[in-house]
Amino acid sequence: MNQTNPASQNSHPVDVEANGKKAAEFKIDIDPKIGEKLQEGLQGGVDVLQGLFSGFVKSIQDAMGPEMMRNLEASQWLGQVAASLDEVAVAWRAGAPTPSGKSGELSCYAERLAEEIRGSRVEGQADSLRNWLELAKSAIERDDSQSRSVADAAGYFSATAKSAMPVQVGGKS
User: What is the SS3 string spanning 22-39?
Assistant: First the structure.
């Protein structure tokens, strides 16, 4: 048996000739502008996705119609007001102080009310909504944590937000 070292059979320096031919050289040329080209390719992909997404949103808006979109916007806004009121009610139930800035927040909501519900299904409730906001704001300014008016106002706004939408998700119209 002839014992040879397998490593010595396969290891040739790059410039050494094997079987009468010069060993192949392996070169990699890297384009110095590869980063720019990758950036251009990625940006093109992002642009395509943005176009698709914009088209998708537009088709939903077209399918829903402006009335439905207005109701959705009003519902979302009313939900924000309800969440703000509920934050105060939860704090009071826990014996905590009123979260700071709530009186100013409710004042802003009261000023925006007419604009935010204009053209929606709940526009006719503007006076009631304004009254609930003022009642809650008054209780907050008095720091009347025993009052249920803030929790009741939160409930009223939450119910109004739900009723702004003609069809509830997972429900029937």
Answer: ECCCCCCCCCCCHHHHHH
The sign of the dihedral angle between the CA atoms of 69, 73, 79, 83 is positive
pLDDT at 19: 57
Q: Is the sign of the CA dihedral 33, 39, 42, 44 positive or negative?
A: negative
Residue 125 DSSP one-character state: G
Model confidence, pTM: 0.60
Distances (CA, A) of 81 to 67, 89, 94, 118, 157: 21, 13, 20, 16, 7
Ramachandran region, residue 95 (left: φ > 0; alpha: ψ -120 to 50; beta: rest): left
User: 64-85 pLDDT, tens per residue?
Assistant: 678 888 999 999 999 999 999 9
CA dihedral 106, 107, 112, 113 (to 10 degrees): 60
pLDDT digits (tens, 9 = 90+) for 93-125: 999 999 999 999 999 999 999 999 999 999 999
Cα dihedral 69, 75, 78, 80 in deg (nearest 10)? -90
Task: Give the integer Cα–Cα distance in Å for 138 and 136.
Answer: 5
* DSSP-based three-state secondary structure for 170: coil
Q: Distance of alpha carbon 53 from its chain centroid, rounded?
A: 14
